[in-house]
């Protein structure tokens, strides 16, 4: 099973991502979630997910900075999907 970590500052988006996708049938388990990049970075280092789905615009640390810092700590071992809303 692959591990996926979800990051978004909108609680309804996080909940939607968890409920709208049948993660288990696709070989994934949601290993955690965070509402900003700073929280996410600490959890990503701890859980080492295979995939991170992140928003770009978030308080404290945005999604692009999260990706940059994650790559600094963990090289290219984690894949990212970036979400952007209007």
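^ structure tokens above, recovered residues below v
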């Amino acid at each position: 099973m692959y591990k996926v970590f979800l990051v978004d500052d909108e609680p309804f988006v996080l909940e939607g991502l968890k409920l709208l996708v049948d993660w288990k049938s696709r070989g994934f388990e949601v290993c955690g979630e965070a509402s900003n990049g700073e929280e996410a970075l600490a959890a990503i280092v701890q859980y080492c997910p295979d995939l991170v789905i992140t928003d770009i615009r978030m308080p404290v640390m945005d999604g692009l900075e999260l990706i940059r810092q994650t790559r600094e700590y963990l090289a290219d071992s984690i894949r990212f999907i970036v979400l952007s809303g209007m």
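The domain at 2-83 is CATH 3.40.50.2300 (Rossmann fold).
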